[in-house]
């Protein structure tokens, strides 16, 4: 079977602009592998279509944009330009036009209009896909994946993908214009009463993770990641390198405002009680609160119980006594009785220090009790009635944040990919990865390139009609 694919180009006035033969091929059917287009044939066909279509579109656009102040510009020559698209790299001739002479002009004497149309020499759709895949898998794997399925095997490599992804992230960073670190800064409390009734409570979990430092391979540095869960609306991720952004609270505030959070809205921050993440949640909004994660409390009590059970093998009475005290401590904390819980922890430490035993881990046991005492004391203002919250169906644990750390950090930065990172590279990649994971990256590109949104609407309408 002979197959000829012809592209017919028609102008806005309905007149034919041109007709091009895109492909001539012979198809011989001997097996399933011969049916339809092969991957190589499909890639070649798309590349040919793209070349002819872009060339025609560019020529029409240049013809409409050759005048300045009603005067047709004089042609001065061409220089080659490569436009990187999803369906192949398109080679174009970019014309140079001489500008009319004018008094007092110190600028260049020529202009290249094509720079206005394609300033970055890359199609937004391709930039979007490169950024999206680079946020999910290593740069080299993203380049290989795109080259496998699209006709862009030339000019696509790990370095190019990395540069494009980080360039997108830098643009996202430049849009972070919020300078305030809280809703209360430079605002009047009287204005909060005039705000509409908020949608409901929003819960934000923050936690940290560590990745290898490229500049000092013996050290790690910390990433802060989180997830916000509004009662009505889609969850969103946030991430940044601790210490890289000197005003991290403004990033959280900007994140909340993009989700429609108001100054009078209830905001609950759930963290593991670490000093770094706890400081981020302070004084963000007048109706915000910081809650110490119940999971981390019980995890520490579980470790203490293991030591007490070990002690029981050497001193049954002392071990049982300390286990009973730990049970009471957990009960007091669960019901929000902070005063009695801290008092019981003091007694636990006193009784443990007074115990004379040959238990080999007794010194470690005392150290862990002291650390738990300091932990609860440092976070006493963040202890709540966990039982009451739990019975009301509200969140008391940052287990969803642990999953966030695994999704945002471990799967791309640490566990599967043992790589070293610069602080700048890690911070920028976090901006695109968080948007990729929560599905907001496409919306960001549609805001930058409105035509991408229009194409989606048209495609949706066509699919509905079909």
TrEMBL record:
At the top level, the lineage of the source is: Bacteria
Protein name from the UniProt record: ISKra4 family transposase
Q: Which organism is it from?
A: Manganibacter manganicus
């Amino acid at each position: 079977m002979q197959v000829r694919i012809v592209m017919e180009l028609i102008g806005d006035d309905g007149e034919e602009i041109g007709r091009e033969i895109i492909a001539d091929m012979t198809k011989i059917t001997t097996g399933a592998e011969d049916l339809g287009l092969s991957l190589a044939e499909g890639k070649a066909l798309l590349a040919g279509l793209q070349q002819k279509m872009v060339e025609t579109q560019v020529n029409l656009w240049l013809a409409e944009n050759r005048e300045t102040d009603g005067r047709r510009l004089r042609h001065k020559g061409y220089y080659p330009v490569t436009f990187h698209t999803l369906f192949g790299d398109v080679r174009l001739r970019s014309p140079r036009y001489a500008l009319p002479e004018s008094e007092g002009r110190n600028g260049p004497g020529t202009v290249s209009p094509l720079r206005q149309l394609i300033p970055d020499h890359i199609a937004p759709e391709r930039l979007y896909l490169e950024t999206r895949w680079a946020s999910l898998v290593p740069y080299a794997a993203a380049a290989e994946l795109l080259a496998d399925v699209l006709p862009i095997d030339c000019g696509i490599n790990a370095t190019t993908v990395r540069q494009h992804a980080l360039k997108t992230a830098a643009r996202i960073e430049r849009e972070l214009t919020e300078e305030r670190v809280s809703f209360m800064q430079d605002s009047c409390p009287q204005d909060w009463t005039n705000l509409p009734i908020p949608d409901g409570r929003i819960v934000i979990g923050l936690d940290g993770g560590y990745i290898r430092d490229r500049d000092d391979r013996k050290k790690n540095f910390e990433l802060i990641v989180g997830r916000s869960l509004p009662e009505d609306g889609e969850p969103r991720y946030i991430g940044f390198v601790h210490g890289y952004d000197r005003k991290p609270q403004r990033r959280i505030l900007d994140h909340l405002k993009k989700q429609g959070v108001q100054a009078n809205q209830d905001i609950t921050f759930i963290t593991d009680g670490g000093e770094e993440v706890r400081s981020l949640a302070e004084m963000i909004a007048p109706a915000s609160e910081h809650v110490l994660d119940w999971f981390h409390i019980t995890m520490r009590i579980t470790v203490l119980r293991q030591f007490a059970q070990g002690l029981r093998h050497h001193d049954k009475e002392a071990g049982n006594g300390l286990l009973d005290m730990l049970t009471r401590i957990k009960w007091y904390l669960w019901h929000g009785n902070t005063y009695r819980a801290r008092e019981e922890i003091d007694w636990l430490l006193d009784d443990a220090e007074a115990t004379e035993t040959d238990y080999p881990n007794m010194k470690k046991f005392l150290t862990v009790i002291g650390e738990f005492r300091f932990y609860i004391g440092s976070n006493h203002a963040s202890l709540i009635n966990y039982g009451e919250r739990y019975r009301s169906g509200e969140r008391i644990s940052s287990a969803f944040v642990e999953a966030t750390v695994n999704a945002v950090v471990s799967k791309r930065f640490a566990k599967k990919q043992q790589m070293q990172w610069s602080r700048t590279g890690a911070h920028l990649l976090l901006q695109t990865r968080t948007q990729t994971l929560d599905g907001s990256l496409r919306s960001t590109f549609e805001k930058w390139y409105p035509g991408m949104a229009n194409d989606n609407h048209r495609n949706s309408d066509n699919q509905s009609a079909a």
